[in-house]
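To: structure subgroup
Subject: Chain for Friday's discussion

All,

I'm putting the inputs and outputs inline so they're searchable in the archive.
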Amino acid sequence: MRACSGSTAPETMQLVSGCPCSAATKRGTHAWRLAQFKAVQHATERPMNTPCALLLRALADTGPGETVDDPEGSLGLLKAYGYAVDSAEGGPVVTDLGRRYLRAREELRWRAWGEVVSVDLTARTATAVVSGFNAGGAVTVLLDLLLAGTGLDVVRLTGTRLEAEANCHAETADDLVLTKIRVVEPLRDGAPERGVPRAE
């Protein structure tokens, strides 16, 4: 996943180095979507050890400038993950990404089925419908994540039925994060249809 500075000629790289598309903190950008995916995957598939988790929770429950004990020296690791930064007051504070990790540790996630509706090669995104998504509507998924999860060529992706783990209670489509994406195998003749929403 390349940011804008990685998608331009060397002589113009300096000009776009501060582009918002390269910032994981700007909602809706590729960098932001990828950071959300990584934080959720981290929380659900390979969570941090107890000292790190307890420190992150303590930071989330305290305000800037308040002292938080770190007996195991875990702060450096939280900063490396992007879950904590130093505040203007000098003490560490939890980041939005750190809060996303914490939510992913607690939110309900289950297997959901979906279908790829369209692919935008220029934007490197795909649109999909997902069963059980409470807010309804199509969701945007990074194309490279879909390709990696399904193992398909991009020309075969549209119309593909998927299975993934999802937080279907998400309030908005941007907050829905799909992990463990795989292709749903074609049904055998006579097998019952599963609840995959069909694109109209």
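Points worth raising on Friday:
The chain has six helices and seven strands.
Confidence is low (pLDDT under 50) at residues 194-200.

D.
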